[in-house]
UniProtKB/TrEMBL annotation:
Lineage of the organism: Eukaryota, Metazoa, Ecdysozoa, Arthropoda, Hexapoda
Domain of life: Eukaryota
Keyword RNA-binding part of the UniProt annotation: no
Coiled coil: none
Gene Ontology biological-process entries: regulation of signal transduction
Stated name of the protein: BOS complex subunit NCLN
Annotated InterPro entries: Nicalin, Peptidase_M28
Length: 550
């Protein structure tokens, strides 16, 4: 009975099975458990800085690419996009990638608070090296995600080079079995941005008859290797917050004529800092000093610039010219009890060291208060400049120290005051820690690179928020500055961010071997079908002891 059923099965193999096979294979593929969605990913990525300063190009020049992803140890040609953790790549490796690779994608640390001091310093120095020169290949940064971690792990264990393989066969098998990734960024061609820097300033008038003015200034932008990642908590959200808090404190003291100080106090916030040579301060000074009505800065006692004052509870006074004994700057220095760092202005340098140098060039007595010991400190321009509780405590303490020293100078107070006056003194100069914390966290949560703060309307974004905050204490003037289009001191370029697509693929060798395997499989199936009747006859003869009669 079963032999008769087998005869029908043999007839199927003779004529119809190849056609059924063509239908069955696609069905099996469709029913495969492999999820095609898992083979592709989309990420938000942030493009490296792209700007010109005094016609000298800085940063990457390209934006789009479609390349095969490789790790730091397996890339070799311009057809590869190198994917690595930012803490793993050395400056020497970056220089090689800059000149030979097709693109670079760096993944930021999962949590920068767990990085060692050596790792943080390495990342900061890498950022400085990357920005100093132009890079023709597209360079992007991405925040850490579990999917990126999987991609990094696959790339590190794939594409083992010949020198790291035990045998040629091992290298070939690893290449065939590895998972590859095609990395694509479709972004617009880099174009110039319409930059409109501004300066916010407001004045608390002193007693009538006194013409002297004290200027308290800070820039509120930030700098890092990628504009969209430039949060700048210490540099220089701390300086901007300090200006706001000092404005609040002295607006109370200057609110009534009875306790108003002699000199006027002018508060200024500029939108471009050290990354673009304090362009806003320069243009603002030109407008105020070179105009027919130069009364705003007619008799400046001194200019106090605040920059990066939350990284340490102590501060340093940076000066271009040592303060003369008996002068206003020397008085502030003595009341602050800080050390002095003297650095002469070098106009041949591409960048000025500190903001006060812009005022010193215009023959004003100026200095910068900072927790940093040097203007070359890499922490001034890094993606790792994020807020912390320790930084907030340092900022509150340094604001309180500065307020006391400034008030002591304005009112010409000495240490010999009675307890009752001391209590009133401390109450009037009390720092609103809640306000400082709120503004510090707000500013350090915003990307404030010049590409962002100078291309937004003055009434929007960070600039608008600072203008409204300063307006609570005094009348504020918004001064917009024009950039010379024929000979610009700087030029900014976009885009600053893009979408990155990662597709899981197999190498070309895998496709070749897979094709050969399919051909071999189909050949075996074909000959099995053709020879099955003969096999069946031999099997039937063996079972029944006689040949099958057709």
């Amino acid at each position: 009975m079963w032999l008769d059923e087998a005869d029908g099965f043999a007839e199927i193999f003779k004529g119809y099975l190849p056609y059924y096979l063509l239908v069955a294979l696609p069905i099996f593929i469709i029913m495969s458990p492999v999820n095609p969605v898992a083979a592709s990913h989309e990420f938000s990525v942030y493009r490296m800085q792209h700007y010109d300063l005094h016609t000298v190009p800085h940063g990457c020049r390209s934006a789009s690419f479609n390349l095969e992803g490789r790790s730091l140890t397996s890339w070799s040609t311009s057809r590869h996009c190198v994917v690595a953790r930012v803490q793993d790549i050395s400056i020497e490796q970056f220089m090689e990638i800059r000149s030979k690779a097709g693109a670079l994608l760096l993944v930021l640390p999962k949590n920068d608070t767990v990085l060692t001091p050596e790792e943080k310093e390495h990342i900061q120095l890498l950022e400085m090296a990357m920005i100093q020169q132009e890079v023709n290949a597209p360079v992007y940064f991405a925040r850490w995600t579990p999917d990126f971690e999987d991609i990094l792990r696959d790339l590190q264990h794939s594409f083992i080079t010949d020198d790291k393989s035990g045998t040629a066969l091992e290298a070939m098998l690893n290449t065939v079995s590895s998972n590859g990734y095609q990395i694509v960024v479709s972004a617009s061609t880099p174009q110039k941005l319409d930059s409109k820097p501004v300066t916010l300033h407001g004045k608390l008038a002193g007693r009538s008859g006194s013409a002297q003015t004290i200027v308290i200034a800070a820039h509120y932008d930030s700098s890092a290797v990628a504009p969209e990642l430039s949060q700048g908590a210490d540099s220089n959200a701390s300086g901007a917050v300090a200006v706001l808090e000092l404005a609040r404190i002295f607006s109370r003291l200057y609110s009534t004529a009875a306790v108003r100080g002699g000199p006027s106090i002018l508060f200024a916030l500029t939108s471009i800092g050290h990354s673009l040579n304090y362009f806003s301060a320069k243009k603002w000074l030109e407008e105020q000093l070179d105009s027919t009505d130069a009364s705003l800065l007619q008799d400046v006692s001194f200019v106090m610039c605040l920059d990066s004052i939350s990284s340490s509870p102590s501060m340093t006074m940076h000066v271009s010219k040592p303060p003369k004994p008996g002068g206003a700057a020397h008085s502030i220095k003595s009341r602050l009890g800080v050390s002095i760092n003297h650095k002469k202005i070098n106009l041949a340098d591409e960048l000025l060291a500190w903001q006060h140098e812009r005022f010193s060039i215009r023959r004003m007595t100026a200095f910068t208060l900072s927790s940093l010991q040097s203007h070359k400190d890499p922490s001034r321009s890094t993606v790792l400049d994020t807020p912390s509780e320790a930084a907030i405590r340092n900022l509150v303490q340094n604001i309180a120290t500065t307020a006391r020293a400034l008030a002591s100078h304005v009112y010409n107070l000495t240490d010999e005051i009675n307890d009752e006056d001391a209590a009133l003194y401390d109450d009037a100069l009390g720092v609103d820690e809640a306000s400082v914390r709120l503004w510090y966290k707000y500013l350090s949560s915003q990307a404030r690179a010049p590409q962002i703060v100078t291309t937004s309307p003055p009434t929007a974004g960070v600039t608008g928020a600072l203008e409204r905050a300063l307006s609570r204490y005094m009348d504020v003037t918004v001064s917009a500055h024009a950039v010379d289009k024929r000979e610009p001191e700087y030029t900014l370029y976009g885009p600053t961010k893009a979408s990155l697509f990662v597709y899981s693929v197999k190498p070309a060798v895998f496709d070749l071997i897979l094709t050969l395997a399919i051909v071999a499989y189909l050949s075996v199936v074909y000959f099995a079908i053709q020879l099955f009747p003969r096999f069946y006859e031999e099997y039937a003869k063996l079972v029944t002891g006689k040949a099958k009669v057709h």
